[in-house]
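Sat 14:20. Reprocessing the chain from the morning session after the first attempt stalled halfway. Input below, unchanged.
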Amino acid sequence: MPFALVNLTKKGLLVFVFTALAALVIHIDVRLFDSKAGEDSLIEYSQDLILLFLVIYLFIKGQKHQAHQGLLFLMSAFFSCLLIRELDGVFDHIVHGFWKYPAWIIAISACYYSFFVHREATLRSLTQYMQHPSFGLMLGAMALLMIFSRLFGMGDLWEYLLQGGYARAAKNTAEEGIELVSYTLIACASVWYCLSLANIEKD
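Finished this time. Tokens:
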């Protein structure tokens, strides 16, 4: 079996393992902690930890790989904004909706740095990234996170499905569970790409 195929198979197995771990977190949260998938649930904490990992990991990789710094910093900033949004309950203690302000500051700063200060390098890195095999996994995971989880978690669908026995906990667990799997796949795709940067730079 060619080395590239073996390497790809190993990565696929790791994706399967981490996806299974995400499902295990949901089972533990529901069965052991009797969770309703609220803000203080193991599912939510796991999402926050994955996002925190992505923010730090991509930022560190951006410092290491100067040629791809603009793109990696942009990705890190994007996940920072998602993390801030996930922690909106914490920021609400300051002022309701306060999370938007730090998110906007990070987003604008990252866009300025990536597309104005390092425009050519960022666009070149983005083009290379879109040709990397991990981009397909990232794109699918983002679609699952941004589109499918929102549409699948609509209250009207669950009210119709449960025929009057509507249980918000079931809806929340399903929606947040999909988000957890999405974040897991996003983390796998990000690590996969970053581990390939050394080879990309050689080419």
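The chain is about 80% helix and 0% strand.
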